[in-house]
Amino acid sequence: MLNDAQRRHLSDILQPASPPRELSDIFTPEQHRRLLDVVHDQGEWKLIIAQHFASAEELIATFAGGFPEGFEPTLDMFLTPTFRGFYGNYSTCLYPEISDLFYNQTFLGHAKSYWGAEYAKPQMMLFNVNGPCGNNDPGHLDTPSFRGIRYENSPTWLCSIMGRSGLFQDYMIKMAQVITWFSHDPASGFTYWPKGPLSQPARLQSPIYNRGIVVQNEMLVHRGEANGPIERQRPAGLGFDSVFTGEKGDPDGWVVKTGGEVIERYRTEDLRFLVHWSAEVFEDYAELKKNMDGSDNLTYDRVFETLIKDVRSRGIAIDTPTDPMRDPAFIKALNSAYDYGGPAEYPVDAPRGEVYAAAA
Ligand SMILES: [Fe+2]
Fold first, then answer.
1. Ligand 1 midpoint to CA 140 (Å)
2. Ligand 1 centroid distance, CA of 181 (Å)
3. Which of 4, 39, 139, 197 pairs as cysteine with 193 (C-beta 3.0–4.6 A)?
């Protein structure tokens, strides 16, 4: 467990390149409809947690170490009916009907201006969609990438620690997201901690309908907020394998299915629909070139050496591992050395979710 000064040091690192910028009237109604149509017609979309963990057992095992002695996490605690799908990835649009929205000149302009940079390219675009839904997320960072060590081919835990350490800023891939919400809920906003998670939170005020922000979510602790009537936030029959899709023949009808059976229905106006677009940004041609030719890449050896040195310089003991990528004791020790302990404060109208509050 870190002391207050050590936690404050980590919190101060977590500040984005610029404060989040608010946008409004982001998509036209016709563009919004096209984005929804892909969700409606092109798939059965899995729960977000089902995309990060292979099974319910793996999910529980991952979180178990983070809970106090005697507190037994169950799948039920993590199960919220939020679904996700990708519109584009690796700078490639997956659905031609929205390619103008992925290769979006206006968004590229926002990304460049946010960083004061010369160049940008779209990287990824996804949606999160749900009806009434609780939210147990205490606040998180999106996983960053670095020249030579990218999230696509390196363990998430390592990229995440590298980001939180603040030691590899010169190598971090500059990114900007344009995040847009479509939600009529009068009390469901977006919380973020612009001066670090141990400082005051800020909030994008609800209702957030066709409004959003330009941000650097890899260095800004943030979370969505719960929405909809509490009694509908957890449909009966929701499971790890539940999917979300459109109701056939009704463009504004939506269903949640478990094992092929419909367990919940929503109308478009009940949804909280989030469109996340992200770009990689290059300050100037020299930076673009370093990314192209790999002439200034980090190596794993250098990263581990830097981390170990930093941990020890902060007065925390850590053993030199023989297999740093796989040594569970080492990974755990690094994780605790860069664990600021969760945000200190939440907005009065959007308190911390139940599960984590119970476990704290
Ligand atoms: Fe996020």
1. 6
2. 13
3. 197
pLDDT tens for 153-197 read 899 889 999 999 999 999 999 999 999 999 999 999 999 999 999
Residue 104 lies in a domain: yes
Q: Counting every residue, how long is the chain?
A: 360
Q: Does residue 357 belong to any structural domain of this protein?
A: no
Is residue 341 in a domain? yes
Integer Cα distance of 240 and 232 in angstroms: 18
Phi/psi of residue 270, each to 5°? -85, -10
Residue 188: give the domain boundaries: 4-349
The answer to whether residues 86 and 45 touch, using CB atoms and an 8 Å cutoff, is: no
CA of 178 to the centre of ligand 1 (A): 12
CA 142 to ligand 1 center in whole angstroms? 5
Dist. CA 313 → ligand 1 center (Å) = 31
**Count of domains in the chain?**
1
Q: If we measure between CA atoms, which residue out of 139, 225, 125 comes closest to residue 175?
A: 125
CATH code: domain of residue 17: 2.60.120.620
